[in-house]
Amino acid sequence: MTPTDLALEARGLRKRYGDKQAVDGLDLAVHRGEIFSVLGPNGAGKTTTVEILEGYRERDGGEVRVLGEDPQTAGREWRSRIGVVLQDTRDLAEANVGELVRHFAAYYPRPHDPEHVIDLVGLRDKVRTRVRQLSGGQRRRLDVALGIVGRPELLFLDEPTTGFDPEARRSFWDLVRDLRDQGTTILLTTHYLDEAEQLADRVAVVQDGRVVALDRPSELGGRAARLAVVRWVEDGVPREIRTDEPTRTVVELAGRWADARGSAAPLEVPGLQVLHPSLEDVYLALIGVETSVAPVVPTLQGSTR
Ligand SMILES: Nc1ncnc2c1ncn2[C@@H]1O[C@H](COP(=O)(O)OP(=O)(O)OP(=O)(O)O)[C@@H](O)[C@H]1O
């Protein structure tokens, strides 16, 4: 991988607020053209990290390159190449949707057609509506429109679908995939595990200011974390086996169960269940939260949860 294949790279990133070490030696490398998701519990250091990468916050230590430049010293030309979905457009409450998107487009050298962007985010029928009259979900779509209208090479999406209804989330996901397919690199922070699973090419789990796991969503936590759990109840005692061959395990269990009871035909095994850990189960195990499927996961820090 050459440095130019990376849209952004952070090494040993550190940031402290008073006696709180919010970012504590964090490493991150995002390839050009990928959707990279950052997951982590409240207070893990995600927003601080993203704001440093966006150039809105100074770091205490570490190396950062975003589109080849240090965000702390990069100029206007660099800023026009990144897109940031603002959390809040309240200051602009009196403008209407169409005015605002056109106004933002004018700041960029190669913007998308504002009308096309308004269609893309599904706000065509709100084009003359003032910002303060939009619903929460419509406001987020407007935030996204403002983030992408400048045709950014790198787009930061911070919890973009908060307040969306299920249908709006799905159409937003399609929009994000389209942007990626057109070559936009996307850094997505989200609290929705299904969103990361649907969208992200790779996921980093951040806890206590460090990356504790990094992989494709389907591989996160490693093979052991993905083992199926076969459960049943024997003599009133719950039993379980972790296996990558749940079908064979169930067939063997059923055969043994019937044999032990002198039956030639299969018998129902009480409480039989086959469970597959979801990304959410793996994620919760990584950050140390117990769930009913609780897989065993190694973290990048060397410990096992
Ligand atoms: N301006 C600040 N001054 C002091 N402490 C701060 C400041 N900003 C963040 N912190 C603290 O730094 C830690 C990391 O916060 P940060 O907002 O980066 O986490 P986060 O992962 O984005 O959390 P959330 O998911 O809740 O948005 C938290 O303990 C937070 O209280």
From TrEMBL:
<feature type="domain" description="ABC transporter">
    <location>
        <begin position="8"/>
        <end position="233"/>
    </location>
</feature>
<keyword id="KW-0046">Antibiotic resistance</keyword>
<keyword id="KW-0472">Membrane</keyword>
<keyword id="KW-0813">Transport</keyword>
<keyword id="KW-1003">Cell membrane</keyword>
<dbReference type="InterPro" id="IPR050763">
    <property type="entry name" value="ABC_transporter_ATP-binding"/>
</dbReference>
<dbReference type="InterPro" id="IPR017871">
    <property type="entry name" value="ABC_transporter-like_CS"/>
</dbReference>
<protein>
    <submittedName>
        <fullName>ABC transporter</fullName>
    </submittedName>
</protein>
<dbReference type="GO" id="GO:0016887">
    <property type="term" value="F:ATP hydrolysis activity"/>
</dbReference>
<dbReference type="InterPro" id="IPR003593">
    <property type="entry name" value="AAA+_ATPase"/>
</dbReference>
<keyword id="KW-0547">Nucleotide-binding</keyword>
<dbReference type="GO" id="GO:0005524">
    <property type="term" value="F:ATP binding"/>
</dbReference>
<dbReference type="InterPro" id="IPR027417">
    <property type="entry name" value="P-loop_NTPase"/>
</dbReference>
<dbReference type="InterPro" id="IPR003439">
    <property type="entry name" value="ABC_transporter-like_ATP-bd"/>
</dbReference>
<dbReference type="GO" id="GO:0046677">
    <property type="term" value="P:response to antibiotic"/>
</dbReference>
<dbReference type="GO" id="GO:0005886">
    <property type="term" value="C:plasma membrane"/>
</dbReference>
<keyword id="KW-1278">Translocase</keyword>
<keyword id="KW-0067">ATP-binding</keyword>
<dbReference type="Pfam" id="PF00005">
    <property type="entry name" value="ABC_tran"/>
</dbReference>
